[in-house]
Amino acid sequence: MAERWCEETAARLFDHLDPVRLEPRWAIDLAMQCGVRDRLADRFPGARVLSCGYLPSALVRSSSEPGGRHHGVAASPMRLPLASASVDLLASNLSLIWFPDLRPVLEEVWRVLRPGGLVAFTTLGPGTLGELRQSWKAVDGRPHIIEFADMHDIGDAMVKAGFADVVMDAERITVTWPDTRALLHDLRGLGTGNPLPDRPPGLTTPRRLAAIARACEANRPDGRISATVELVHGHGWKPQARAEVRFEEFARTR
């Protein structure tokens, strides 16, 4: 399910790129997350694609292939081993959730993009997993899920970083799982586990897992566990010079 969810969100990200008229020479798959690399290669056949991330397995899959179009490099999104103003397009699917402070990431993206370059991404908004948060509150009242940034705050941070023509968009999707165990497994696979400093110490006990399962399954429709996902889309351009953009001009939701 986690892999299918990655594919679905990546497809929605590239649906948002359909109206874009851009012929990148270099395109970046930021953090090697969730089906971006191959879609970049298909959508922009004239581009070389560089995947930047941490996981060795992802680096092997993203190593240079015949034709020299695909490359992989181990790198932090906050410190990319790229020259300034060298990249035409940077795409990220569900990787920004790992960074509570987006400022250093956006500043690094700004640095590597050339004037006229584009950053496009999906991330998760605060409306995500509200049902699971309520279930955990019924169990122990402790934080178990990271807080996702509001799209308005992300857009504001992009404007402050200097991006122009910033557009933020959000959609709500209902995702279902056969049971609570499958839900928690997928969340761990997506990196949305519990990295919070005040999380309960130690491993989650079988007793607590049984309690959260009962809380989640109390109102399961059609025999499946459901959760709301607020999928946030964003993109912005690097102008020739830093531009002041009014926040009210770019935020929208649906």
Which stretches are low in confidence, meaning pLDDT under 50 for 5 or more residues running?
56-64, 243-254
Largest sheet: 7 strands, mixed
Write the H/E string, N to C: HEHEHEEHEHHEHHE
Shape: elongated
The radius of gyration over CA amounts to 19 Å
Number of helices: 8
Query: How much is the average pLDDT?
Result: 81
Range of helix content: 25-40%
Strand order of the largest sheet: 3-2-1-4-5-7-6
Beta-strand content bin: 15-25%
Q: Which structural class best describes the helix and strand composition?
A: alpha/beta
Calculate the terminal CA-CA distance, rounded to whole Å: 25 Å
Give the total of beta strands: 7
Task: Summarize this structure briefly.
33% of the residues lie in helices and 24% in strands. Mean pLDDT is 81; it is low at 56-64 and 243-254. The two termini are 25 Å apart.
Question: What does this entry look like structurally?
Answer:
The structure is a single chain. It is built from 8 helices and 7 strands; from the N terminus they run H-E-H-E-H-E-E-H-E-H-H-E-H-H-E. The protein has 254 residues and is an alpha/beta fold. A 7-stranded mixed β-sheet has the order 3-2-1-4-5-7-6, with helices on both faces. It is elongated and about 55 Å long. Residues 56-64 and 243-254 have low confidence and may be disordered.
Write the SSE topology.
Blueprint: H1 2-17, E1 26-30, H2 36-43, E2 48-53, H3 56-61, E3 70-74, E4 87-93, H4 103-112, E5 113-124, H5 130-139, H6 151-161, E6 164-177, H7 180-190, H8 206-216, E7 225-237
Helix pairs in contact: 5-8
